[in-house]
Amino acid sequence: MLQYFVASIILLFIILVDTEFITWKTFRKKRKELPGIRTILDIIKWKVPLYWGLPNYIILGRGEEYFGPVFQYKIGNSCTVAVNDIQVARKVMSSPDCRDRLPEGHVLYERSFNKPLGILFGNGKNWAVSRDFAVKTLSNLGFGQGTAVEHCIATEMEDILQKIEAIVQQECTFQPHGFFHVPTLNVLWNLIAGSRFSHNDQKLTELLKYFYKWNRSFNLGATALHAFPWLRHIPKLTEHDAWVNGHLKFSAFFKNIMEERITKNNYLDDPNDFIDYYLREMKWQNDSNNNEYFTEEQFLTVCTDLFMAGADTTRTENLPSLVYKTRMPYTEATTAEILRHACVIPVTGRCPVRDMEINECSITKGSIIGINIHGIHFSQHIWSDPKVFRPERFLSAEGRIINQEKTLPFGYGKRKCLGETTSRNTFFLFFTAMLQRYSFQLSPQHPKPSLEDVCGLSRAPKPYYVTVQKRSN
Question: Residue 195: left if φ>0, alpha if ψ -120 to 50, beta else—which one?
Answer without folding.
Answer: beta
